[in-house]
Amino acid sequence: MSVLSYLVFYTILVYVIAQMPTADFPYVRTLDKNGKFVLYWNFNDTHITFEVQVRTFGYVGLGISRDGSMYPADVVLGWVNNDLAYFGENTTRIIYSFHDQDPDTEKFQLLWHGKENRGSVNLHLTQISVLPYDPTSTQWSSTAWTLDFINNNFTIHEQREAYRCIGFYLPDLGGKSHIIRFEPKIDAGNEDYIQGISLYRCNIGDAVNVSQIHGHGFNCLEAPPVIQYCKEFLAGWAPGGEGFYLPENVGISVGDSNDPVFYVLATQYKATGGPQGVKDTSGLRLTLTRSLRRQEAGYIDAGSYISWQHFLPPREPEFTTKAYCSQKCLMWGFKDTLDPMNVIGVMFKTHSLAKAVALRVIRDRTEMPWIIKDDKYSPNYQIMRSLRKPVTVQKGDRLLVECTYDTSSRTRTTLGGYFSENEVCRAYILYYPKKFIDGCLGWSSYDHLRGRFQEPVLSEDTFAYLNSTDWLRDQEMRRNLKVALATSTEHSFCYSNNQAPQNAFDHFDHPQYSIRHTAPSTCPQGAV
């Protein structure tokens, strides 16, 4: 085995103008006579690292060859296709393979890696949400400890999905603390049976007795009336997710005199598909500290209200829904405060049909740049995404959450709901400083919907009309539905644990923009 076969890591950067290397490389060589191809490198006893900078709009190749020939050689290629950067905010699917033997160099034959030594994973390469544990970091201190919220040996049904809730009183924390991290606690072997876990806290006051549900499980969709007060999202997990650290200057308040003391853990279970008697004690773990951070964070649960109004026709390869948090609702959440929200993280929640998600701010009649726009979204990789720098949301702004679905595999309509045959479109928006709003959900009124003969469809008849349409044949109604969603009056419902009354409504004309945002090219333009 050659020295280089321990590990060779190539970094290929395509530049159109001269740039400094991204790291301290002591060795550099210009490879071509025109000075377009510059190679940087460094090495130690086990690794050699390359970086190349090339003045070109085309592809770049770097390889190692015995005699300078292109074959046989080890070559890495990189390029940017029509200004499309492959490493951006989109979800990137990394593939990997390996073998425990070197290739047969005599026959120039690469041995097959086999079924076990290969795979793929979803990653957000430019939005880092998981940090390594570093006991010397200021993230951690002797005052940090963990608190678990887990299910109580729930039996997962082999044929039925379930939406299971369990209530908890918060133990006495001895004073105010800050949440600085949350992470999943998933029972080994149960990963494929859990669709999502969310932790909420409840503004119940002293007058409401919840002792009957403390430590006890119940069907979330048949919950006791007290659960209507459990509106504040606190932490969550969905497939592909891992632990999330808040920035070092930000924490979520718990244990203060004004903080809720009752919590509800909600878990969405899939059917096991065969195994019987599978027990589950999965849940979420919070890491807390008494060393309080400078900023206190909160969430806005934004997106589509879960109801039939979140309506998806079948056989649509790309169908987009929009949900607005209105100007009035956000102003209600700001109350008398003027300092802006600073968005630092976003976690999207969908079911299996979603293929793209996006979140944006609308200021006056101007589209601001997307906070996040992921055109390669995977429902199997729903994590809290850290933003590289906070995005400002001002008093008087609107929020827009978009989800794009591929319903090509469905022959019937898909409605908003909690189970796998349904769909959702939500964005859990983490921001600071905390305001007086926990959620802001939107839906269309469909008041501009026309029937197949262009007659107005009455509001009380809308669902029946849509549900009875032959979507596999009626292309005119497909067009009418899309026009209605692009022009109809919109609704927003906003709510808070910390306001009285605890919710507000708004209805407004479908937003029209005077200035639309155009995404800049991901590649700088200049002379080659």
Helix content: under 10%
CATH H-tier superfamily of the domain at 141-296: Copper type II, ascorbate-dependent monooxygenase, N-terminal domain
Largest sheet: number of strands, sense, barrel closure: 7 strands, mixed
Name of the CATH architecture of the domain at 141-296: Sandwich
Q: How many DSSP E strands?
A: 34
User: Structural class of the secondary elements?
Assistant: mainly beta
Shape: globular
Amino- and carboxy-terminal Cα gap: 40 Å
Strand content: 35-45%
Based on CA atoms alone, the radius of gyration comes out at 26 Å
List the total number of helices.
Answer: 3
- For the biggest β-sheet, the strand order reads 28-25-31-22-32-33-34
Provide the residue-averaged pLDDT.
85
CATH topology of the domain at 141-296: Jelly Rolls
How would you describe the overall organization of this protein?
The chain has helices at 327-334, 462-468, 475-487; strands at residues 8-15, 27-30, 37-43, 48-55, 60-65, 73-78, 92-97, 118-123, 145-150, 154-156, 162-169, 177-185, 194-202, 217-219, 232-237, 244-245, 250-254, 262-269, 278-280, 283-289, 295-296, 298-304, 311-312, 319-325, 341-349, 354-363, 366-374, 385-393, 398-405, 414-415, 426-432, 439-444, 490-495, 503-508. The chain is mostly beta strands and 528 residues long. Among the domains are: 3-123, no CATH class; 141-296, Jelly Rolls, CATH 2.60.120. The protein starts with 7 loop residues before the first strand and ends in a 20-residue tail after the last strand. Residues 1-18 have low confidence and may be disordered. This is DOMON domain-containing protein. Keywords: Disulfide bond, Glycoprotein, Signal. Belongs to the copper type II ascorbate-dependent monooxygenase family.
